[in-house]
Amino acid sequence: MALNLIFLGPPGAGKGTQADRFAQAKGIPKISTGDILRGAVAAGTELGLRAKAIMDAGNLVSDEIMIGIVRERLDRADVASGFILDGFPRTVAQAEALDGIMTGRSPLIIVDIQVPDAELVRRLTSRLICKGCGSNAPEGLTAGTAEAATATCGKCGGSFVQRADDNETVVLERLKVYERNTRPLVEFYRPRPSFCAIDGALVPGDVARQIESAVDAVAGATRG
């Protein structure tokens, strides 16, 4: 059975880190919408060219084009053992379209990483990124510590800084936007037996083990 997953969660929940970790552990591709778009544009596909024209004009790519590009990507051979979608779906309309794409495939497993707002604010106001390449700082390296002042990025050697928008006022507004825009999507998936609610307030290793256990349980029930 292929492991087909989407990861949901608010900013600061660690879904990107956990998705990367799970993808590497299972040997399946993590597919981000940004990568899909860039790939389609670079390949010069019909949808890629349409998307490029829209983005060059400063507009958002429509659901129709985004769904088409996702469909093309999920028809490639490297997803035979499964995939993790990162950044899609973002709306109920996209989720309904994804259900259509998934017809005849192994069930979609939804991993919803849940973290209290107070913990999200703490994380987001203390996190660091590389000034050079934008990569996240290693786990445990936070703003205001002596280690952060001297640490350098393992990818490019740059120093670590806080993002300009990682202050409490902006973070709280981002969480409100997430709640408003994404709550309908969470409620769309919640009734499904393949919906996994994960306690993301734990340390990353414990969150990873919780995700693996929950996904194994869903996969086992499906096989049974």
Provide a compact summary of the structure.
This protein is α/β, with parallel strands linked by helices and 224 residues long. The protein is 50% helix and 13% strand.
Instruction: Report how far apart the termini are.
Output: 11 Å
Shape: globular
Main sheet: strand order: 2-3-1-4-7
Q: Please tell me the overall pLDDT.
A: 91
Number of strands: 7
Largest sheet, described in full? 5 strands, parallel
Strand portion, in percent?
5-15%
Class from secondary-structure proportions = alpha/beta
> What assembly state would you assign to the polypeptide chains in this entry?
single chain
Number of helices: 9
**Helical residue percent band:** 40-55%
Secondary-structure element sequence? EHEHHHEHEHEHEHEH
Query: What's the Cα radius of gyration?
Result: 18 Å
Q: Ranges with pLDDT <50 over ≥5 residues?
A: none
Topology:
Elements: E1 3-8, H1 15-26, E2 30-32, H2 33-43, H3 46-56, H4 63-74, E3 82-86, H5 92-101, E4 108-114, H6 117-124, E5 129-130, H7 146-150, E6 160-161, H8 168-189, E7 195-199, H9 204-223
Parallel strand pairs: 1-3, 1-4, 2-3, 4-7
Antiparallel strand pairs: 5-6
Helix pairs in contact: 2-3, 2-4, 3-4, 4-5, 6-8
Can you describe this structure?
- The protein has 224 residues and is an alpha/beta fold.
- Helix content is 50%, strand content 13%.
- The chain has helices spanning 15-26, 33-43, 46-56, 63-74, 92-101, 117-124, 146-150, 168-189, 204-223, and strands spanning 3-8, 30-32, 82-86, 108-114, 129-130, 160-161, 195-199.
- The chain has a 5-stranded parallel β-sheet.
